[in-house]
Task: inverse folding
């Protein structure tokens, strides 16, 4: 607990930094599956602060990349296996984490900064920014593909794929179709595993569910509302939130096919809306509301179900119109 830059707040604030692992199954669901608190080194080395916070005596300072290694070790010990490990620039810039994943034959797609250095050919070193300027001048190097489906339809980006001197390492570049903003992903696929641009793009698109897990954890279960200051108390709060989120996520995944009655998506921009947009599948927030309603009798019978269906139908209608609007947009590449 200290004043530090908090991504959720977008500014320096007093808060807790935690490294989380989100387990994602494509087209099924996702939930938080692991966490480690990041403790500043000055708190560990200061005996008074360490005692006040209740830190373990054998606790050593670990960077976020090292904490990610610890989480992966525990996940592997529990029998979890991953097609890809994905993460943002904090983890992509950690050499120790990348080496750990490669030593364990774990494929990864990690975001890196534009200043990240790679070796496109033997004896040649370029930053990601330099590689884009020199190796992707031809528009044919770019291909418009979807990074996966969102609530408003397909998420279209332009993608370029640059090989390196290592046959197992590649640089995947994502380009926003409107703004031209670039995002760089350093990729590794071990020997014997299928290596295609389609798989790498699909993996890069699956990095975002952890942001949704944070949203659900904070908005529905109070992940960011812990008022404790002791190390163990904070850990207990995190575990309880993760367990509750997992229960709701698993329930939503099991009921997805049974509760999804949405109308077929539009196929042209002038298509008339359906008379009945249907209902979106049950989501984690709706599962949480149903469980909460089952434990209280403050409302008349059918009240919770009525508003549950109203919200799902409204979201299905909104989703249909968003998808139709996107059909009007061309996927032309920004020059």
Result:
């Amino acid at each position: 607990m200290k004043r530090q830059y908090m991504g959720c707040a977008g500014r320096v604030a007093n808060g807790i930094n935690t490294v989380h692992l989100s387990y994602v199954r494509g087209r099924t669901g996702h939930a938080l599956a692991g966490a480690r608190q990041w403790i500043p080194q000055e708190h560990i080395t200061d005996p008074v602060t360490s005692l006040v916070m209740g830190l373990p005596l054998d606790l050593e300072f670990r960077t976020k990349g090292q904490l990610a290694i610890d989480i992966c070790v525990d996940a592997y010990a529990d029998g979890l296996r991953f097609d890809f490990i994905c993460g943002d620039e904090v983890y992509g810039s950690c050499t120790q984490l990348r080496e750990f994943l490669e030593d364990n034959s774990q494929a990864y797609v990690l975001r890196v900064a534009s200043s990240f250095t790679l070796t496109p050919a033997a004896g040649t070193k370029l930053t990601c920014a330099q590689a884009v300027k020199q190796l992707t001048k031809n528009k044919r190097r770019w291909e418009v593909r979807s990074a996966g489906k969102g609530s408003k339809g397909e998420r279209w980006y332009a993608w370029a794929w640059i090989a390196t001197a290592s046959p197992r390492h590649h640089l995947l570049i994502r380009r926003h179709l409107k703004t031209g903003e670039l995002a760089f992903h350093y990729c590794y696929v071990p020997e014997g595993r299928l290596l295609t641009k389609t798989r790498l793009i699909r993996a890069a698109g699956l990095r975002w569910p952890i942001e949704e897990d944070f949203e659900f954890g904070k908005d529905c279960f109070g992940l960011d509302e812990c008022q404790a200051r002791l190390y163990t108390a904070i850990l207990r709060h995190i575990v309880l939130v993760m367990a509750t989120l997992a229960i709701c996520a698993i329930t939503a995944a099991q009921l997805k096919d049974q509760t999804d009655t949405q109308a077929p998506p539009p196929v042209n921009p002038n298509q008339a809306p359906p008379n009945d947009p249907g209902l979106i599948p049950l989501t984690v927030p709706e599962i949480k509301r149903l469980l909460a309603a089952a434990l209280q009798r403050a409302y008349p019978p059918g009240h919770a179900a009525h508003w549950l269906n109203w919200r799902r139908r409204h979201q299905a209608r909104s989703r249909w119109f968003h998808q139709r609007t996107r059909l009007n947009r061309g996927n032309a590449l920004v020059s």
About this structure: The first strand starts at residue 2 and ends at 6. The CA atoms of residues 178 and 334 lie 6 Å apart.
